[in-house]
């Protein structure tokens, strides 16, 4: 008999930052069966047309059936049409998914790229999708496998490593998504990518015919946890697949600070919901404070100088209001603050 699937968690937590943006979800399942971004914190300010910036918020979701629903509910709660998220989740995964509303979508590209997961890897099983959602390709009990053998291989996955993404993933090859090619039966070479894995900490070992390993993984953007499960099983010679996945941190947001859709709805109904300030999320970027007249000129797209290379930075007025994001550019006459995102004019920010 096939191994019995462990009960999956029933909530996914999401975090929202100031502006909105849309990212493609993995359409291995249709929109109705994907993980939904729940409404986390919605801005209580006016609409983006009259407000310099919306805020971020956190929320939680159940399994892969509520992503589209959550987007819609987020928009309804905040009375805006534009809602987006900062990073996709696999259809069967749960966890933190940053959501932005209104003009804040334009800020999501500047969020931190850190991610963390709690993953359960099952050995003795190989599937087409490298998780429990796909067709079983190989299955054989491995009751003698122990934690020591697995733990000895963990260091090979740390640092900057080459990784082959799952065949069922959103990566494009020859102008098409890998999952589309896989569903069509088209065989292509999956491109190898370099990813960064900062830590893999073992949390639990569950022995049995199909033993399972629970690990906490901290990594950079673009890392596929399904690939780690598959490759670890390959090295052991047992096969391995991802049995469960919770994203515990994303773009500076933690699971513990997130809200479920139900919690969000209750807070909004009681007028207790408040969004997260963009500065609270973007504080990893240096900040440049401009005097009033200079700030007006910068918001109008004029050239404004700076003393040194600030890299990508926040631009604020003297009252501390975020005006946008700039990037320091070297010119013959020194450094300039080139506009990357302008959230509003200085007059709007003072209204």
Describe the structure.
The structure is a single chain. Helices cover 17% and strands 30% of the residues. It is of the alpha+beta class and 351 residues long. The chain has three domains: 12-111 and 255-269, no CATH class; 115-250, Pseudouridine synthase; 285-350, Archaeosine Trna-guanine Transglycosylase, Chain: A, domain 4 (Roll), CATH 2.30.130. Strands 4, 6, 9, 12, 13, 14 and 15 form a seven-stranded mixed beta sheet that branches. Strands 16-18-19-20-17 form a five-stranded mixed beta sheet. It has a four-stranded mixed beta sheet with strand order 2-1-5-3. It is elongated.
Brief overview:
The protein has three domains: 12-111 and 255-269, no CATH class; 115-250, Pseudouridine synthase (2-Layer Sandwich), CATH 3.30.2350; 285-350, PUA domain (Archaeosine Trna-guanine Transglycosylase, Chain: A, domain 4, Roll). The protein is 17% helix and 30% strand. It has helices spanning 67-78, 147-151, 178-183, 225-236, 261-269, 278-281, 292-299, 346-350; strands spanning 12-17, 58-61, 83-85, 94-95, 99-101, 115-123, 125-127, 136-139, 159-163, 172-173, 176-177, 193-206, 212-219, 240-250, 253-254, 287-289, 305-306, 312-316, 322-331, 334-342.
Write the layout of secondary structure elements.
Blueprint lengths: L11 E6 L40 E4 L5 H12 L4 E3 L8 E2 L3 E3 L13 E9 L1 E3 L8 E4 L7 H5 L7 E5 L8 E2 L2 E2 H6 L9 E14 L5 E8 L5 H12 L3 E11 L2 E2 L6 H9 L8 H4 L5 E3 L2 H8 L5 E2 L5 E5 L5 E10 L2 E9 L3 H5 L1
Descriptors:
seven-stranded mixed beta sheet, 17% helix, Pseudouridine synthase, 8 helices, alpha+beta, single chain
């Amino acid at each position: 008999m096939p191994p019995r699937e462990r009960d999956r968690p029933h909530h996914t937590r999401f975090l929202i930052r100031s502006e909105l943006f849309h990212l493609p979800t993995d359409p291995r399942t249709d929109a109705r069966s994907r993980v939904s971004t729940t409404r986390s914190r919605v801005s209580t300010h006016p609409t983006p047309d009259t407000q310099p910036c919306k805020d971020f918020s956190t929320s939680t979701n159940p399994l892969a059936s509520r992503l589209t629903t959550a987007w819609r509910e987020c928009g309804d709660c905040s009375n805006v049409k534009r809602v987006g998220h900062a990073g996709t989740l696999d259809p069967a995964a749960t966890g933190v998914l940053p959501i932005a509303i209104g003009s804040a979508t334009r800020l999501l590209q500047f969020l931190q790229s850190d991610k963390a997961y709690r993953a359960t890897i099952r050995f003795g099983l190989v599937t087409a999708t490298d998780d429990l959602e796909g067709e079983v390709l190989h299955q054989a009990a491995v009751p003698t496998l122990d934690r020591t053998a697995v733990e000895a291989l963990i260091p090979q996955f740390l640092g900057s490593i080459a990784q082959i993404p799952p065949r069922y993933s959103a990566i494009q090859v020859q102008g098409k998504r890998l999952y589309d090619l896989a569903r069509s039966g088209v065989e292509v070479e999956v491109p190898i990518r370099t990813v960064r894995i900062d830590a893999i900490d073992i949390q639990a070992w569950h022995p049995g015919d199909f033993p399972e390993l629970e690990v906490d993984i901290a990594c950079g953007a673009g890392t596929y946890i399904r690939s780690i499960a598959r490759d670890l099983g390959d090295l052991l010679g047992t096969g391995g697949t991802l049995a469960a996945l919770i994203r515990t941190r994303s773009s500076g947001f933690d699971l513990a600070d997130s809200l479920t859709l139900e919690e969000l709805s209750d807070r909004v109904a009681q007028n207790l919901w408040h969004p997260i300030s963009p500065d609270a999320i973007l504080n990893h970027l240096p900040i440049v404070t401009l005097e009033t007249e200079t700030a007006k000129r910068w918001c109008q797209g004029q050239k404004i100088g700076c003393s040194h290379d600030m890299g990508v930075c926040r631009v604020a007025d003297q009252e501390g209001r975020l005006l946008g994001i700039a990037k320091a550019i070297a010119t013959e006459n020194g450094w300039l603050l080139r506009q990357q995102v302008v959230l509003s004019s200085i007059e709007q920010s003072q209204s």
